Structures are given as structure tokens and as C-alpha cells.
Amino acid sequence: MNMKRFVTIALLLAGAYAMAQNPTTTWPYLYDNFKPGVIYLQGGAKSEVMMNVHLRHDQLHFIDNDLVKQADLSNTLIVSIGADSFIPSGGELRKIVAQDDNGVVAVSLIGDFAASQETGGAYGASSESASTRKLSSYDANGQVNRNHMLLLQEKENGADLNIITTYYLIRSGDCVKATRKDVSASLSEEGQAAFKAWLKQNKIKWKDPQSLLKVVGFLSENK
Question: Is the CB of residue 199 less than 8 Å from the CB of residue 212?
């Protein structure tokens, strides 16, 4: 099966899911707990495991004998977790937010650990020392190869973690950051001129997945 069919199958898989309301530096995951999911591999094979998306580098973690492991996505087409679908791209596991016959709009979800370090300290403690304590569990040990339940118990011990979202346009294996500058830079000189003219006729909202699908369509017809 080709990638388009796998995307379609994954998007049709409905299921209840819950995004973590407050991911923290000790629980830097997209979901409040590990969820049943399916990894669709090249060649048609698939693997069903309990999984979650780690917000440090958009990596897929799964549970193996109660231990958290990091998945190798080199042979992966699509990952489905509940109603959400993800595609490996640029070394990250990016969430699919829109797709059509021309390609995919996906979003990178990365935890803002730098901002978490700026948390104010209590009772005269410096922000740096306070944040160091909150980040120590992550920095010293990380989550890989640790017991899943122990990590869950430590969730509330960390600093709140905001998520940075970055949109990407993916088609036929090519990926470009969803900004006017990056799209233009990916085109030939002739394509850049066509893109400039096209934008005058198409008002693109660069944070709107459905609007970005129009740019994917343009890229499918221009280089």
C-alpha cells in the first residue's frame, strides 16, 4: 500500500483520546498517559503497542515490559494513536492536521523547555535554582528505560511545559516549513515568480491547516 492509503486508513481510525492538559518537565508527553496505538510499517506490516509522543524531539515512546522505550521510525509510514495520526518527517513524528490527494499538512509539537527554566522561585529562591530542581528528573535520567508507572507518579513534580507548534507541508517525501519564506526558498526562480503571483490571488492563513492545503496543491504543480 502507498503512503496515501495508509494516511487515509489512519485518519479513519476513531477512538477516544485525551491530550495532556498540563504536560510537565517530568511528564513531557502529548497525552496524559500511554494509549493503544498502531505503527504501520513499510511493506504492510503493523505493530500494536501502548504509546505516547515525547515532546522533547517529537519521538515515539512505547511500553515494553513496563519500561518506556523509544521506537525506531526508520521503517514507519504512519502512526495512529486514538483519533490522531502522525507521520515521520525530518527526524520527528509530526501530527497530521489536514490531508488531501496532493499531500499532508503536519505539525511539529515540541515542549518549550527553555521557557520552563524561567519559572520564578519561591521564598527567595532564584528562578534558576527552582527550575533546576524541576528539570532534574528529566535531565539526569530522561524517560527511556524507566518504569512507566514511576514516571506517571512524578508527573506533577515538574514545571508546566508549554508546546511550540510548527506547521510543515509534506508531499511525495518532500517537506517544507509552512512559511512564505521557506516555501519560496524551496522553489526555482521561475517557481518563485509563480508563487508570488499565486499568493496575490490566494490569501493564505499560515496557521490554518485547511488554508495550508492550498499551498500543498501549489507545490504539487510547481517546483
Answer: no
Select from 92, 89, 95, 78 the least CA-distant residue to 3. Answer: 78
- Angstrom distance (rounded) from CA 156 to CA 199: 46
DSSP-derived pairing of the beta strands 76-81 and 35-41: antiparallel
The pLDDT confidence band at residue 25, using thresholds 50, 70 and 90, is: confident
Q: Measuring CA to CA, which residue among 146, 47, 177, 169 is closest to residue 98?
A: 169
The 3-state DSSP composition of the chain as helix, strand, coil percent (nearest 5) reads 30, 35, 35
Q: What is the pTM of this model?
A: 0.79
Q: pLDDT (tens digit, 9 = 90+) per residue, 163-212?
A: 999 999 999 879 999 999 999 999 999 999 999 999 999 999 999 999 99
Distance CA 204, CA 214 (A): 8
